[in-house]
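Dear colleagues,

As part of the handover before I leave the project, I'm documenting each prediction I ran so the next person doesn't have to rerun anything. This entry is a single chain, and its sequence is reproduced below.
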Amino acid sequence: MNIDEDDSWDAGDMGCGELVIELRTRLLAMPGRVLKLIATDAGAPEDIPAYCRMTRHELLHAAAPAYWIRARS
């Protein structure tokens, strides 16, 4: 899948709590744009989609460890 991202962030193995706080800040700063997130934490495949559902950001594609998220406008 080829998705054009506006920005990317490699969160490495950052845990869920820290990751979602930083992710929130990044997405709020880029409404309507796409962020490619790299997250290798074992919980990320469940945490990232759940976070997107709860916050109404659009998870365009998930192929762990990469996630493409369109920030809500």
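The first strand starts at residue 7 and ends at 12. The CA atoms of residues 15 and 41 lie 6 Å apart.

All the best with the project,
I.
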